[in-house]
Amino acid sequence: MSAKYSNPEVSASPHVRAKLSTSHIMQLVVLALIPSGCYGVYHFGINALFHILITVAACVASEFLFTHFMHKPLTVTDGSAVVTGLLLAYCLPVAAPLWMGAVGGVFAIIVVKQLFGGLGHNFMNPALAARCFLLLSFPKLMTDYTYGLYDSISSATPLQLLKESGDLGDISVRDMVFGNIGGTIGETCTIAILLGALILLMFNIIDIKIPAIILATFSVCIMLFNYLLGTHDFNIYYLSAQLSGGGLMLGAWFMATDYVTRPVNTKGQVIYAVLIGMLIAVFRWFGNNAEGASFAIIFANLLTPLLERLPVRKAFGTGGKQA
Amino acid sequence: MLKGTFFGGIHPFDGKEMSKNKPIVDYVPKGDMVYPLQQHLGAPAVPVVGKGDYVRHGQLIAEAGGFVSAPVYAACSGFVKTIEPHLTVSGDMVESIIIENDGKFAPLEQKKTEKQDTALTPQLILERIREAGVVGMGGAGFPTHVKLAPKNPEQIDYIIVNCSECEPYLTSDYRRMIENPEMIIEGLEYILAIFPHAKGIIAVEDNKADAAVKLEKLCINKPAISVSLLKTKYPQGSERQLIYACTGRKINSSMLPADGGCIVQNTDTVCAVRDAVAEEKPLMYRIVTVTGDAVKNPVNFRVPIGTSYAELAKEAGGFVKEPAQIISGGPLMGISLFDIDVPVIKTSSALLCLTENDVRQHRQTACINCGRCADACPEQLMPMRLLRAVAAADRDTFLKLYGMECIECGACSYICPAKQPLTHSFRTMRRNIMAEKKRGGEK
Predict the structure, then answer these.
(1) Is A199 within the bounds of a domain?
(2) Which residues of chain B does A118 touch, with a Cβ-Cβ cutoff of 8 Å?
């Protein structure tokens, strides 16, 4: 009587799943990072491409070898190592020796990510942690912003100039927005980063909340510092230079939004983003370094477990007024 | 007009195209009919016929086993073959009356038709519903006469007919609305007669706007009934979400909808109420959608309860391709079947045969804390953290994170990019906690 069929497989409901998977998300992040990378190679030359390739290769290889030799499930296909590699490469100055990315990549994947349990368990952004590790270990090499194959161009970044002399010299804000300045491979071109951010927003990969709050808080703080301690005026020119210089944009859009290391609750996210914005301003104004985004973000990463302990939102229909 | 909606939710592929334009076809069963004694929530029904008895179409074969229970009627005629455990949709072996269908559908000798001028008092309406064995036909199977008898009937403000049909692929309610809208309204009017202050709301998702227009036309001169158009989103048909979308009232797990002054009834249930009250017809038929890309001719059947799913699949033209997944009900809350030779019961809404097993297609990866599950959760829970609590068998945290508010709709599992078994973990944990409470282990 029964119609012809043989052993359909059973599953627990729901029996359908959305198409978007973890690796799709990673692929979209890679896509969003491509504009910045392309500009980096165009602006800094072929060496930038070598940096990117070596760093990504180091990350992917470390992920593969670690999981292989530790007899863990192979997770290299999820694409998260590629994202880490790209982000780390974008944080390197083009003048750094080529082994730098490899060292950083191994550190990012093995020490920061895999030793803590792999994807989803790392307590800080692997790329940023590796960048800070390199910055502290090789401060000279990591802050050598010389570029240009034949004649080296100005070694100071706009932020360094701004900090030392209070003005940008012959660099225009237009140069900064379009990325025609010194800096690390992926951070200089604000337009390219925003294009990537647009891709992330369009595909619903990130929420605008965290980057928007970071940028707003940072703007308010840096203007306040400038007004109280610096030139005593509200200088839009100064603000736009601050916004488009350094790792702020790359950090706010691509690193602070990293799912694993940002709080998942809205309350936590707001505090987290405000904290990052304030810390970047403090580090840039008071710190030794003209930079500060990386340290601010990994510091906030460390607070994430604490922020996630904030009371959870009330379930639908519980608490408050009913019926 | 502002369309009602709720927090969270998902938009899965809806697949209703396959069967939404197929008119309801009466299916005449050929094989044996199986009547499980447990087709509803509450006490199982008690057989009143024995092996070898001749049973007629419309005859009571099992009476209610208590107040929260419902009688069962035969929708065919023939000799009772046996009363023994039979496999049901849920995968359980349930004591069932099996009737050897002789294909004659010999009717019961007509009841002496009393004068129909006895006024329909609320008691009489409830009595007829109870006698007809009407239960919630949307899935839960809660006896309707119990649901319609809350402590304070005068405090009920709204009777909501759930015509949202938010589960993908299902079109049985839609066909009802298109073909018998007057039945829905009539049934709703009988229910409203039980409650002195209640207003009727027929809630329809906006992807079925044509049906809503039909219903609206019919209630032009009925001030007590209105049609509410809701945004199409899963799980709009969930009781709490539906009540919120229609009235703005919030119900939680410690309340009954009646505590919020609302009672929700499924479309087919309301039609069954209409038949029970107006014609004293017991619940013997229901609409079943047979669909899915594995089915040759997707169709909506009016099926005598007790018919085997296998017969329905055959009648729908059989399979174009071997199904990899067979589901009773919708793809989000339905039950996966390992054997298709199970009977249609009062709560069966669809037989869904898919050529691909979606769950098997995806590889599970680690949770990356993306938060999509929390955005999708209509109960505003934090599924990723509940999952961690379940993994750690941490019952206190599970409760603190409102785990018992979960309605097991499946939105979190659906949306999860890491394909984590969220809903299923919560279901297991909730079952354990509820079982323990029942045993009196902890209060």
Answers:
(1) yes
(2) 366
Window 291-320 of A: residues touching B by CB (8 A cutoff) are 308, 312-318
pLDDT tens for residues B142-161? 999 999 999 888 999 999 99
Instruction: Judge: A3–B424 Cβ closer than 8 Å, yes or no.
Output: no
Q: What would the pLDDT profile of B51-94 be if each residue is shown by its tens digit?
A: 999 999 999 999 998 999 999 999 999 999 999 999 999 888 99
Would you tell me which residues 212-251 of chain A have a C-beta closer than 8 angstroms to some C-beta of chain B?
Answer: none
| Surface-to-core class of residue B196, CB atoms within 10 Å of its CB (0-12 exposed, 13-18 middle, 19+ buried) | exposed
Q: How many domains does chain A have?
A: 1
Task: Answer whether A317 sits within 8 Å of B382, measured CB to CB.
Answer: no
The CA distance from B383 to B375, in Å, is 10
How do residues A236-264 score in pLDDT, each as one tens digit?
888 888 888 888 999 999 999 999 999 99
Nearest to B310 among A1, A16, A322 (CB): A1
Residue recorded with tokens 């447990």: B38
| Contact residues, chain A, for B323 at CB < 8 Å | 5, 8
Task: Considering only the beta carbons, identify the residue of B12, B251, B413 that sits closest to A317.
Answer: B251
Site from B252, B255, B408 to mutate, A interface, most A CB atoms within 10 angstroms: B252
Does the CA dihedral A311-A316-A322-B1 come out positive or negative?
positive
Angle among Cα B80, B278, B122 to the nearest 5 degrees reads 105
Range of the domain at A175: 22-307
Give domain status of residue A90, yes or no.
yes
Give the dihedral sign, CA B152/B154/B156/B159. Answer: positive
Shortest CB distance from A10 goes to which of B338, B378, B413?
A: B338
Segment B155-170 mean pLDDT: 94
Tokens 């100039």 belong to which residue? Answer: A161
Domains of chain B: 122-279 (3.40.50.11540), 372-439 (no CATH)
- How many beta carbons lie within 10 A of that of residue B231, not counting itself? 16
Long-range CB contact pairs, A197-200, < 8 A, 24+: A197/A32, A197/A253, A197/A254, A199/A28, A199/A31, A199/A32, A200/A28, A200/A29, A200/A32, A200/A253, A200/A254, A200/A257
Question: Which residue of chain A comes nearest to B352, CA vs CA?
Answer: A15
Residues in B 158-177 with any Cβ partner in A closer than 8 A: 168
- The enclosing domain of A117 has a CATH number of 1.10.3430
φ, ψ (nearest 5 deg) of residue A156: -85, 145
